[in-house]
Amino acid sequence: MKKQTKEKLKHIYIHAYLIFWVLVALFPIVWIVSMALNPINVLRPTELVIIPKNASFSSFIKVLTRPYEAAPVPFVRLLINSLAVAGGTALFSVILGASAAYAFSRFKFAGRQAGMIGFLLVFMLPATATLAPLFVILSLLKIRNTLLGLIIAYASGAVPFAIWNLKGYFDTVPKDLEEAALVDGCDRNQAFVKVILPLSLPALAVTFLFGFMNGWMEWMLAWTFLTKPSNFTLAMTLYNMQGQWNTPWSSFAAFSIIIALPVLIVWFLLQKYIVSGLTLGAVKG
Amino acid sequence: MKSNLIVNIKKSRIAYYYILPAGAVMLLITAFPILYQVWLSFTNFTYVNLKNPNPAFVGLANFIKIFKNQVALENFNFWRTFLFNIFWTISNVALHVTIGVSIALALNTPKLGFKRFYRALLIVPWAVPSYISALIWRNMFDTQFGAVNQIISKIGLPGNIPWLTNPNAPIKLLNFLSYAYYACLITNVWLGFSFMMVVALGALQSVPHEIYEAAEMDGVNERGKFFRITLPLIRQAMIPAIMLGFVWTFNQFNVIYLVSAGGPLGTTEILVTQSYKLVNPGGIYGIASAFGIIIFFILLFITLALNKITKATESVV
Question: Which of A152, B3, B86, B175 has its CA 20 to 30 A from that of B104?
Answer without folding.
Answer: B86
